[in-house]
Amino acid sequence: MLSRWMSGSSRNLDREYNCTVRLLDDSEYTCTIQRDAKGQYLFDLLCHHLNLLEKDYFGIRFVDPDKQRHWLEFTKSVVKQMRAQPPFTMCFRVKFYPTDPAALKEEITRYLVFLQIKRDLYHGRLLCKTSDAALLAAYILQAEIGDYDPGKHPEGYSSKFQFFPKHSEKLERKIAEIHKSELSGQTPATSELNFLRKAQTLETYGVDPHPCKDVSGNAAFLAFTPFGFVVLQGNKRVHFIKWNEVTKMKFEGKTFYLYVSQKEEKKIVLTYFAPTPEACKHLWKCGIENQAFYKLEKSSQVRTVSSSNLFFKGSRFRYSGRVAKEVMESSAKIKREPPEIHRAGLVPSRSCPSITHGPRLSSVPRTRRRAVHISIMEGLESLRDSAHSTPVRSASHGDAFPAPGRGGRADSSERVAVIADENYSPADSVLPTPVAEHSLELMLLSRQPNGAPCSIEEEKESEAGTPAAAGEAEEVGGELRALCPGGPGSAQAEQVNKFVLSVLRLLLVTVGLLFVLLLLLIVLTESDLDTAFFRDIRQTPEFEQFHYQYFCPLRRWFACKVRAVVNLLIDT
Fold it and tell me: Closest by alpha carbon to 268, among 153, 397, 376?
């Protein structure tokens, strides 16, 4: 029987698991891993496949069965992190956006970052004015199809590309005009480099939004960028906090706390509520990793962080990679022949359809788009006006933080028409890829009446590897709508519950400590262990006094009571 158990255990340990990783160009990499394989092993396999050396900017993302996103931790077993059943499906994505993407050493790295930012543009995470959006889209056209050729590119050819969640005819004409007249002669590498330089100047560059609510119950998106912590509400950046001003991040349940210390010794606490405790923990871990990567000088300065001040409560986490400064120093030492790049401009793409994929998809009819002037990315005018150094207002722990309003209106010659009905809407990325007409309509219906998205689950269906059928899409839409209700009342009840749990936890730990002390006392007084540690304690005058004056009488009294109870039981 023992031999059968041992053979079964060895077979279980030697079991192989199939993994499929979706790359940034929507191709797939498939491999097998052992049960005990670490995340670093899988990541190294991917980087070898891509011929990538500047790999610290990238990571592997997956979605659990509860549709919560996670970054794969490289120091832990892949199988233990995946709660889903094999085969496992994951995505290769940019995890830490380069502070200056144009300064990356190798073209292959710049190309992968270009693909990521192109996805951000398509999914509504990168916002800008119409003029900037047209220029970015023209760079993509030049990189994918080269110079304008009247014989190959008929009238309206730019409309066959899906650069953004929504298009307008005016924007399409502007894209084609720039592509024809301004970008002729640029190689794909040059167009991609110019694209990165332009994208880096936008205020939502590097934003990976997390849906939350503030203390007043208003929807908000929290994000970590190469420059600091950002809060977006209603297409306005209401807070920007530099990394050196962030002193601490912690979470309790669904509540996320950000402690800020600004000049003149102003200290504030920003409080936000995530949809679920798992989402809040993911937000906290992302914040810890981003702050360590961008703020620290050396990876040796990284410390284990706890989500609570008490040792027995909360989660502990430690960033395990190199920091940005070390990555740049290492990149400067790379000396090899530039690897060959297989660009996927004309390969079918689920998330960014190219010119060979038929007509673009539209979320609303063309006539309606013209009527309401939804020309993508022209919004966030207020974000452009706010500088990175915009301070946040000092407030108490429970205060709300209103968004600073703009005094003037936009000039009529450059009308500001904001994506998603005047609200920052990365929720377009809740759509499965490939994007379908019925899914777009479902997304629009799942918004609140004021146009604010209930939640964001960007690319989750794509990352989970299950195409969304109509019933499943409706179920996801119901989950999103379920996240929206709730206000200050529910938050107050949640605070009371957390307080009760904290008290119970404290009592439990106190009882545990008393029990451990009692065991130690019994070992000291009743056992025959004669180690140096016990001998030194027993020979102290204080212990001898305690032993003879208190412990021995207590032991005799306890033994007497036990004998009395035993005699009573025998008599009955």
Answer: 397
- pLDDT value for 469: 38
**C-beta of residue 182 within 8 angstroms of C-beta of residue 141:** no
pTM: 0.65
**pLDDT for 117:** 96
* Lookup result for tokens 């056992």: 527
**In whole angstroms, what separates CA 462 from the centre of its chain?**
16
Contact 22, 10 (CB under 8 A): no
pLDDT for 347 beyond 80: no
**For all residues of the chain together, what is the average pLDDT?**
75
Rounded CA-CA distance 281/266 in Å is 27
CATH code given to domain 101-126+128-200 = 1.20.80.10
Helix (H, G, I), strand (E, B) or coil at 337: coil
Q: Which residue has the higher pLDDT, 571 or 2?
A: 571
Please give the C-alpha separations between residue 195 and each of 110, 172, 188, 189, in angstroms, as whole numbers.
Answer: 10, 18, 10, 10
Q: What residue segments make up the domains of the chain, in order of their start?
A: 16-94, 101-126+128-200, 215-332, 511-571
Which residue from 54, 51, 28, 29 is spatially nearest to 42, judged by alpha carbons?
Answer: 29
Q: Which amino acid is at 218?
A: N
Q: Which stretches within 527-551 are classed as H helix?
A: 532-538, 541-546
Using CA atoms, how far apart are residues 160 and 157, in angstroms rounded to an integer? 6
The CA distance from 88 to 467, in Å, is 15
Angle at which helix 169-181 crosses helix 130-145, to 10 degrees, equals 50
> By the 8 A CB rule, do 274 and 212 touch?
yes
Instruction: Give the list of residues 6+ apart from residue 39 with CB closer than 8 angstroms, or none.
Output: 60, 72, 73, 74, 75, 76, 77, 78, 81
Handedness of CA 387, 270, 70, 494 (dihedral sign): negative
Give the three-class secondary structure for 504.
helix
Give 399's pLDDT tier (boundaries 50, 70, 90): very low
Only one residue has tokens 């005016």, namely: 170
Domain 16-94 part of CATH 3.10.20.90: yes
- With a CB cutoff of 8 Å and minimum separation 6, the contacts of 509 are 312
* Cα 230 from Cα 207, distance rounded (Å): 8
**What's domain 215-332's architecture?**
Roll (2.30)
Query: How far is the C-alpha of 228 from the C-alpha of 190, rounded, in Å?
Result: 29
**pLDDT score of 6 more than 90:** no
pLDDT-derived band at 282, boundaries 50, 70, 90: very high
What pLDDT digit, counting tens, does each position of 237-278 carry?
888 999 999 999 999 989 999 999 877 778 889 999 999 999
| 50 three-state secondary structure | helix
Half-sphere exposure of 263 (CA within 13 A, CB side): 4
CA separation for the pair 217, 489 (Å, rounded) = 10
For residue 543, what pLDDT is reported?
A: 81
The token pair that represents 529 in the structure block? 């262990």
